[in-house]
């Protein structure tokens, strides 16, 4: 399995600083959400080549899939993001669904999402880039978010029926929403392209809360997963010290 840091792990520092830290810690990628704030993408790509590590995931420019009146805006944002990913060598694009629309049935909103995602699959075909649908918790961080449960996320992926549309499974969000983390993180392995990890409560580094990340990561590893695990978390101590502790207490014990 490969491990990525997320932008903001070193507050106030830019993408190149974070990429250097990725390399220093022996990790494999950086998740940077707003690619459009990078400036000269080709200059960033050249620095990635020099350092030997790069941006492994970014986000779409528009986060609304349930409102079909915004479909063309969503698709235009995705096209721009695909073009950026081709320059940067990024292979994962994260999307959320947007908030549930009042007065509109969930079935209608889901149908709008599936249709938009089918259109997205056509844009992504042949690029080697995956669009990752992310369920989020509505209890603590994202009240009203349409997609919260991993089972529904997997069903939507199946309905779209394209290998270019998969899930990012965020352990922190799913612990809050539904629990049964190991069961769900492994049951939907064929639809999951990427995992996010953080502890709960607090969304801080693994080892600071209730989640047994040694067991969780062993279970994910046991499925044969060899993609990215992103540390999408805050840090309760100095970031470098927290990452060294994570490597010593958890990563060093994975077979």
List the helices and strands and how they pair.
Elements: E1 2-6, H1 15-24, E2 29-31, H2 41-51, E3 54-59, H3 71-88, E4 92-95, H4 106-124, E5 130-133, H5 150-160, E6 165-170, H6 171-177, H7 181-187, E7 192-197, H8 213-222, E8 228-231, H9 239-249
Notes on the protein architecture:
- The chain starts with a strand and ends in a 6-residue tail after the last helix.
- The model has no long low-confidence stretch (mean pLDDT 98).
- The chain is 41% helix and 15% strand.
- Helix 3 (71-88) runs parallel beside helix 4 and helix 4 crosses helix 5.
- The protein has an eight-stranded parallel beta barrel, surrounded by six helices.
- It has 255 residues and is an alpha/beta fold.
- It has a single domain, classed as Divalent-metal-dependent TIM barrel enzymes (TIM Barrel).
- It has helices at 15-24, 41-51, 71-88, 106-124, 150-160, 171-177, 181-187, 213-222, 239-249; strands at 2-6, 29-31, 54-59, 92-95, 130-133, 165-170, 192-197, 228-231.
- The longest helix is centred in the middle third of the chain and has 19 residues, at 106-124.
């Amino acid at each position: 399995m490969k491990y990525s840091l997320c932008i903001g792990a070193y507050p106030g520092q830019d993408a190149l600083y974070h990429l250097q830290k990725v390399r220093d810690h022996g990790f494999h990628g950086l998740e940077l959400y707003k690619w459009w704030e990078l400036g000269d993408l080709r200059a960033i790509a050249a620095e990635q080549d020099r350092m030997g590590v790069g941006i492994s995931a970014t986000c779409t420019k528009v986060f609304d899939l349930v409102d079909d009146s915004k479909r063309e805006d969503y698709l235009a944002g995705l096209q721009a993001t695909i073009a950026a990913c081709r320059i940067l060598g990024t292979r994962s694009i994260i999307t959320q669904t947007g908030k549930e629309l009042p007065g509109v049935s969930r079935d209608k909103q889901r149908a709008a999402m599936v249709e938009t995602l089918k259109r997205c699959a056509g844009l992504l075909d042949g690029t080697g880039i995956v669009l990752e649908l992310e369920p989020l918790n509505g209890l603590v961080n994202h009240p009203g978010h349409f997609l919260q449960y991993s089972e529904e996320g997997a069903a939507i992926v199946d309905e779209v029926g394209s290998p270019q549309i998969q899930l990012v499974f965020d352990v922190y969000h799913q612990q809050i929403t539904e629990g049964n983390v190991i069961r769900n993180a492994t049951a939907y392995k064929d639809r999951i392209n990427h995992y996010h990890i953080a502890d709960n409560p607090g969304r801080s580094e693994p080892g600071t809360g209730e989640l047994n990340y040694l067991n969780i990561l062993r279970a994910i590893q046991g499925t044969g997963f060899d993609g990215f695990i992103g540390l999408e978390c805050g840090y309760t101590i100095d970031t470098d010290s927290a990452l060294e502790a994570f490597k010593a207490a958890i990563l060093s014990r994975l077979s």
